[in-house]
Structure formats: C-alpha cells, structure tokens
C-alpha cells in the first residue's frame, strides 16, 4: 500500500472511530440517549448522586451506582447495576414529615438493564429506543430506612441531533411501578412518572455543555387520581470525553414543587430535596 492510500485508509478509520464514539455519547446526567453500545464493547460507569436540603435540619443522601454495560448487538445492550447508599440526617424535617436521625452506609440491591434501539439518531431523522430496568432495593431513598422494594423502570427515549451532531437533544418518558414494604408494614404499590429533557452543545473536540430538566410525580396505590407530589427541577450539565474515559456533571436544583410546607406550590421537600448533583465517570473497553 503506497503512502497516499495509507493516509486515506487512516483518515477513514479515524472518521469511523469518531462516528462510533458519537453514536454512544450520552452527555446527560439524568436523560438517556437513543444510541446504543457497539456490539462486543463493554463500558464501566460509576454514578454518584448527592442530594441535600430539606425544610430544616441537616440532610445528606448519597446514591452510588456501579454500572457494567455490554453491547449484545449494535442495537441491543444490557447492563448490570450494583447499588449502595449513604444517609446523614440530623433533626431533619421536610414539607410535612420529620425524619429519624441517621448516619448509615449500606448495600442497596441491584438492577438489570435492557435497551433496544429502533431508530439511530446518527443515520435516521430521529433516534428512538425502548428501555427496561427491573430491580430490587433494600434502602428507602429518602430517609435511609430498611425496606424491600421491587421495581420495573420503563422508558421511551427520543433523540434528535442537529448541526452534524454537534447539538444533541433528548426526551425521556419514564413509567415505574414499585412494590414495597417496610419492616413493620404490609406491601404497597406506587407508580412513578418522570419526564426528562436535555440539550447539549459540543463546543470543542472534548467538551459539551447543556441544560437538563426533570418533572417527577408519584401516585399512591397506582391511582392516577392520587398524586403524592409534583416536582420540577432544572439545571446545567457539562460533559468531557478523554482518550480513555468520560465524565458528566449535572447540577439539578428544584425549581418548584407541590405540596410545600403550606400545602401549595413552593418547594416539595418530603420525597425530594432542594438540590441534586450527579457525577458519572466511565470508560469503554
């Protein structure tokens, strides 16, 4: 092969590698993209989500999720999550609830992801994927108490790319039935719904910056007439892609929530907090 042909092949290989990277670039902390891991590739990601701020008192919650992801085909991927949690509560009060003091770290179960891409956002006009994540948890997310919880997180994922994929926009709809019981309580059913959206602009070869928003609610006894809360959060997200790793940081303060301490719309601080910060760090191999 002469030098000119070699350079052409090298350029094509580099372009293909870049396209593969873009095909699975997820620059958001809370919103999922429609892209899928390439067949035969693995990805290890550490999720760290800090939650802080109740109506009064001291409150810190830290969720740690270790994800191992595998591309079964170029459209179908699976992942295993191992979860732990830390809670620090001192004289903490929400909008209407008071929480027991706690300083505790523990294992919080596991979950399994199945994701299938129907439309590719790089090659098709839109990207579209479906996502299922059955899981088991043993720690209640808000107060850190022990319980049993089985859940099935289901997502519909839309993605649209603009300007040669420099601008990525996504929308997720999540429906999650939960079946839980405390140590001294019978089984109960809850139904969570979330709508998340994000947009991210690639302003250099390695950096992206954008915004995300999340609207979350939950229905007691899976009754759509019995909403327990409604919370809107929004904030900035920053994504970095290195040679062998990537990192995404999202800051998501609560904008408005119902019911607040007065029973109207202010900030809802029973099931949610004033601020969430999520850092995702991962590598592909």
Describe this structure in words.
This protein has 285 residues and is mainly beta. The protein has one helix at 3-23, and strands at 42-52, 56-71, 76-93, 102-119, 127-139, 146-162, 167-182, 188-202, 207-220, 227-241, 246-258, 275-284. A hairpin with a 7-residue loop joins strand 4 and strand 5. The chain has one domain (3-284): Beta Barrel (Porin), CATH 2.40.160.40. The protein has a twelve-stranded antiparallel barrel. The two termini are 30 Å apart.
Annotate the secondary structure layout.
Elements: H1 3-23, E1 42-52, E2 56-71, E3 76-93, E4 102-119, E5 127-139, E6 146-162, E7 167-182, E8 188-202, E9 207-220, E10 227-241, E11 246-258, E12 275-284
Antiparallel strand pairs: 1-2, 1-12, 2-3, 3-4, 4-5, 5-6, 6-7, 7-8, 8-9, 9-10, 10-11, 11-12
Which architecture per CATH?
Beta Barrel
Output the CATH homologous superfamily. monomeric porin ompg
Radius of gyration: 20 Å
Top CATH class: Mainly Beta
Structural category: mainly beta
> Can you tell me the CATH topology?
Porin
Low-pLDDT parts are: 1-23
Strand content: over 45%
What is the straight-line distance between the termini? 30 Å
């Amino acid at each position: 092969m002469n030098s000119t042909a070699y350079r052409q092949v090298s350029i094509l290989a580099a372009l293909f590698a870049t396209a593969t990277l873009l095909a699975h670039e997820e620059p958001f902390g809370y919103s999922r993209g429609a892209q899928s891991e390439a067949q035969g590739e693995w990805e290890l990601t550490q999720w760290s989500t800090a939650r802080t701020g109740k109506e009064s008192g001291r409150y810190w919650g830290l969720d740690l999720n270790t994800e191992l992801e595998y591309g079964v085909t170029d459209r179908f991927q699976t992942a295993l999550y191992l979860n732990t949690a830390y809670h620090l509560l001192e004289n903490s009060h929400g909008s209407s609830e008071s929480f027991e003091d706690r300083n505790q770290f523990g294992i919080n179960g596991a979950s399994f992801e199945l994701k299938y891409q129907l439309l590719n956002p790089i090659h098709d006009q839109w990207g579209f994927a479906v996502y299922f994540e059955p899981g088991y948890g043993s720690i209640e997310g808000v107060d850190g108490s022990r319980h049993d919880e089985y859940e099935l997180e289901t997502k519909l994922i839309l993605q649209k790319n603009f300007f040669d994929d420099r601008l990525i926009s996504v929308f997720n709809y999540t429906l999650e039935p939960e079946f839980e019981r405390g140590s001294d309580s019978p089984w109960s059913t809850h139904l969570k719904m979330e709508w998340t959206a994000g947009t991210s602009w690639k302003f250099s070869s390695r950096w992206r910056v954008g915004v995300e928003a999340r609207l979350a609610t939950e229905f007691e006894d899976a009754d759509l007439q019995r909403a327990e809360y409604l919370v809107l959060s929004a904030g900035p997200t920053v994504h970095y892609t290195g040679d062998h790793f990537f990192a995404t940081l999202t800051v998501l303060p609560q904008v408005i929530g119902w019911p607040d301490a007065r029973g109207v719309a202010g900030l809802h601080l029973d099931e949610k907090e004033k601020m969430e910060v999520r850092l995702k760090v991962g590598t592909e191999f």
